[in-house]
Amino acid sequence: MFSRFRKDQPGAAAPVSRAVPQAHDALPPLPEKAKPAMAMRQRAKPQPAAPATPDKDRRRRQRILELKSDMHTRLLDNLNLAAVDAASEAELRAEIAAITTEALNEASVVLTSEERMTLIQDLYFEVRGLGPLEPLLKDDTINDILVNGPQRVFVERAGKLELSDVTFKDERHLMRIIDKIVSAVGRRVDESNPYVDARLADGSRFNAMVPPVAVDGSLVSIRKFKKEKLGIDDLVQFGAFSEEMALYLEAAVATRLNIIVSGGTGSGKTTTLNALSSFIDSSERILTIEDTAELQLQQPHVGRMESRPAKVEGKGAVTQRDCLKNALRMRPDRIIVGETRGEEVIDMLQAMNTGHDGSMTTIHANSARDGVSRLENMVAMAGIEMPLRAVRSQIASAVNLIVQASRLQDGSRRMVSITEITGMEGDVISMQEVFRFERTGLEPNGKIIGHFTGTGIRSNFADRFKRWGYDLPNPIYDVIGER
Ligand SMILES: Nc1ncnc2c1ncn2[C@@H]1O[C@H](COP(=O)(O)OP(=O)(O)OP(=O)(O)O)[C@@H](O)[C@H]1O
Ligand SMILES: [Mg+2]
Q: In the chain, what are the helix, strand and coil shares in percent, each to the nearest 5?
């Protein structure tokens, strides 16, 4: 039966090498006696499905978990992984269902049809997908998946972190899934190489750190890739910024101001950058540079670059700076750097200062002022010996606008400030805030009450906007009282 997927060798325990080496190979096969473990735990009579007490319920769940784990080992031992790779979903599901039925009969375990379906589904995800992570990856309401060791898997929904009911059997199980992900992209993670950045097949951003550096079990963070990126209209509708701010940002992008989106981790920087890019004219040639390609520009003329870490032997790295230097030779109209975090800051500032107006990037900072300090620090860390005043004047002439994104304590993501850089006053970079989020209170359920408002200061670029055909009405800068 189902011989197409089964290994040729009779008996599950035969120590044969598989056709295609897989991450699973790292696992030693279960000892022979572990296989009939289900039979050893066999009760006198098949157990009916109806749970009686919570304790019994818990024991039953635990038993199903054990069963799943046994079954998984059995599957890996039995299946010809090369054939599995080639099999269609339906074929593989049928095969898994058959092996499951066989094993359940052998162990005299009776499951409800729902439990059986779930078991087959979970096993399918183990063999073909990313095991327990798979349902979370498929759930569109989840933005981030954060694994803190095998027993604690958190997810972020609507800006709030919650503990999910997903668990891995143990650290080995978790490591196997990590291995599966990183080996698919030709990387490795182990004691001597304890952390890794990768991109999943669906575009999601993936980072893992394994023990002993990760003290309580492997740490995994996944930023889910959204096929449908949030656009300007969505963001206005979600309350990320106001229509007035959208009008202003349209003018700022279209008139080629150099823009930095600043914000904390997960505050919506990349989303904002992506949405802002929609204001770029479709005739322009845009080059994007990222560590992990997340941006999805809609224009027809986009060149995407992704930096690459060094290979295991320490060679082959292509940094964002390398990409940026090369990009300048590729006749870009605009350059977009996903996140400036290191030495590439030098080339970014230079590009902004030398004819690549309208370039954009994000930085990790908590306010516009803080963002400028971060830029200064990055320049200093890049080893450039320049007096502070010179660095500041470079920044002041390169950057026109800092847009501050923030994830507020109620989980909402908002553009809390739009600040223009207006020049230098003595040794200090001068700035003016034109829009901000005014927080006015807190609802009993913890939701933040507030509204967006102008600061009453007319944009320093108002004349430029006008010259380019974006004659914004002055009232958009008005201070708005509580609504
Ligand atoms: N205004 C918003 N409303 C709802 N969800 C949002 C909003 N902005 C961003 N998100 C979602 O929040 C998550 C994090 O956003 P994003 O990747 O843009 O953050 P980031 O600041 O770039 O994060 P990182 O620091 O990790 O690069 C994404 O899943 C995104 O879809
Ligand atoms: Mg980002």
A: 35, 20, 40
pTM of the predicted model as reported, rounded to 2 decimal places: 0.79
Q: Which ligand approaches the C-alpha of residue 275 most closely? A: 1
Residue written as token pair 């992990």: 292
Interacting residues of 46 by C-beta distance below 8 A, sequence separation 6+: 108, 109, 110
Q: Does residue 306 sit in helix, strand or coil?
A: strand
Pocket of ligand 1 (CB under 6 A): 143, 223, 226, 230, 235, 238, 240, 263, 265-271, 413
Is residue 476 within 8 A of residue 244, CB to CB? The reply is yes
398, amino acid identity: A
Task: Quick: pLDDT tens for 449-472.
Answer: 999 999 999 999 999 999 999 999
Q: How far is the CA of 281 from the centre of ligand 1 (A)?
A: 24
For residue 212, say if its preceding peptide bond is cis, omega within 30 degrees of 0.
yes
Ligand 1: which of 270, 295, 403, 410 to mutate, most ligand atoms within 8 Å of CB?
A: 270
Edge-to-edge order in the sheet of strand 413-425: 302-306, 286-290, 334-337, 360-364, 259-263, 401-407, 413-425, 428-442, 448-454
**Lookup result for tokens 């066999």:** 42
Q: Residue 185: which H helix or E strand, with range? A: none
In this prediction, residue 21 carries a pLDDT of 34
pLDDT in tens, 368-423: 999 999 999 999 998 888 899 999 999 999 999 999 999 999 999 999 999 999 99
